[in-house]
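Deviation from plan, reported transparently: zinc ion complex.
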Amino acid sequence: MKDFSFYAPTEVVFGRESEEKVAQLVKKYGGSRVLVHYGGQSAKRSGLLDKVCGLLAKDGIEYVELGGVVPNPRLSKVKEGIALCREKGVDLILAIGGGSVIDSSKAIAYGVPYEGDVWDFYAGKAAPETCLPVASVLTIPAAGSEMSEASVITNDEGEVWLKLGYSNNISRPKFAIMNPERTFTLPAYQTAAGVTDIMLHTMERYFNPDCDMTVTDAIAEALMRTMKDCVFAVLKNPEDYRNRAQIMWAGSLAHNDVTGYRVNGDWATHQIEHELSAMFDVTHGAGLAVVWPSWARYVMKENVSRFVRFAVNVMGVENDYTDPEGTALKGIAAMERFYHAIGMPNSIHELIGREVTEEEIVEMANKCTRNGTITQGKFKVLRMEDIAEIYRMAR
Ligand code: NZQ
Ligand code: ZN
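Because the crystal trials were delayed, the predicted structure below was used instead.
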């Protein structure tokens, strides 16, 4: 087993009515003037935003609201948030939403005490020394940002948009309020994309170059099998509390390092997807469903037995001991069928509604490797040409 450190400081308050504790938690983590940050319409429409603001007001906590975060959250909104927090003297950022709102909150939190351009952190030009505390009321299980140290921001300032992630333990949220009932209103597509992302956060860790993690692998496999079952139940009945709750908790476990230490994971599928969502503004989970099967077929020979184990233990494929590669390929094909069955696309064409061009493929592969200066992935180290080939296989 490789060395690792495990750090998951977020206080999770889970269950029906959990948002009732919001004011108490804000105070516990030092908040007295809060930025309530949210997305488009869902938190307003459901009444959650009003409820949370009402609870803060009732306890004498001052707050200011900033909505309008879009999926694949933008740097321009982050800068608006930084200016507002400085003007109002905000001391805690409360995200009401999913990965996009929480990531935008983390970026604002880094930017408020920093004199330079917050993009410096994402561009790798500087590292923050401090940041404001961040917390969330989660409304969509998917990105796992409610417990993670990561945030992913799209720079919409230039002509060519860049989507880059930045990870730092100082931004791990102080608390996360998770009420599965708040996810009943999720559209089927977002539910399925969320489950795809949750499983991929586990798979990125599972397909690593050092596979001696017996207990962690067993947790990872159980989580992935559970998600495969639960997703069909909630697609059939969106108000199925029991299965919504399994998915919600799995979303956090999949990305808080319980299913594997992030730093040892592969992450190529994520990096390759980030270029798709930067160029075509697609849903992250749907992009992952398109990329993973092609990535898997491209890298499989690095460790066929790992793919056999995945096929048998997660996808329920019968092990043909005379043909390990055949078994591994059946596992990948089964995953592809699963994606289709839950309404996820199987190709870039299905994802964006048209053929991707060779020029676009080359541009994405270039951006993914910063013009060939870096590689992606650890299970197999991928260079620019490898990544272009994976886009072609997925087209
Ligand atoms: O904007 P509103 O109206 O709220 O609608 C949102 C949005 O359109 C909607 N939604 C959320 N909760 C809802 C709801 N609709 C109805 N009922 C509810 N209860 O869902 C849509 C998607 O929301 P978003 O926050 O974008 O989803 P997700 O949590 O999947 O986040 C995606 C972003 O997270 C990044 C992705 O790249 C993407 O930018 N990631 C962040 C990670 C991290 N910080 O650790 C890791 C991930 O791998 C990922 O890269
Ligand atoms: Zn993800």
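The longest strand covers residues 33-38. We consider this an acceptable substitute for the interim report.
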